[in-house]
Amino acid sequence: MNVYTPILVLGAIAALFAIGSVGIATFIGPRRYNRAKLEAYECGIEPLLPADDAKLATGQRFPVKYYLTAMLFIIFDIEIVFLYPWAVSFDSLGLFAAIAMMLFLFNVSVAYAYEWRRGGLAWD
User: Fold this and answer.
1) Where exactly are the transmembrane stretches of this chain (predicted)?
2) In this predicted model, what pLDDT tens digit does every residue of 6-48 receive, in sequence order?
3) b/e sequence 77-110, b meaning 16+ C-beta within 10 Å
4) What pLDDT, on the 0 to 100 scale, is given for residue 31?
5) CA distances (Å), 50 to each of 12, 23, 43, 45, in order?
6) Which of the residue ranges 12-21, 39-48, 94-103, 114-123 has the most confident prediction, judged by mean pLDDT?
7) Which one of 3.30.930.10, 3.90.1150.30, 1.20.58.1610, 3.30.43.10 gives the CATH number of domain 3-118?
8) Residues 68, 120: contact at Cβ < 8 Å?
């Protein structure tokens, strides 16, 4: 149990800090509510008012650039997750790991080229 005591103490301090921060912000924070602050955040897309006719959908489709940007984030996020452990243990790994990482980087480069070709990097 002595081994886990510092971890438990650190967890308790983190929990107290989180609960204390939220509590203090609730009591001493400004309370200037308006209509915009009370609405749900919609990623910059203006929400539509509900339609009187049930057949008319009030939702709207997201632009393709939204999905391309999300795909770009996922591609590079996964790349970094795999590159860090490989870079840390590069010396102890052999030729097989270097070839495997080259193949992985090739696959990521193909995804990056696809993203670039589809216009996901053009921020118009």
Assistant:
1) 6-28, 66-87, 93-114
2) 999 999 999 999 999 999 988 888 788 887 777 776 666 565 5
3) eebeeeeeeeeeeeeeeeeeeeeebeeeeeebee
4) 80
5) 46, 36, 19, 15
6) 12-21
7) 1.20.58.1610
8) yes
Within 10 A of 75 (CB to CB), how many other CB atoms are there?
A: 19
The label of the residue with tokens 């912000």 reads 25
Identify the CA nearest to 69 among candidates 120, 117, 110: 120
pLDDT value, residue 103: 92
Cα–Cα distance, 84 to 87 (Å, whole number): 5
Residue 110 carries which side chain, given as an amino acid letter? V
- Amino acid identity at 103: L
Q: Looking at the chain, how many residues does it have?
A: 124
CB 120 within 8 A of CB 75: no
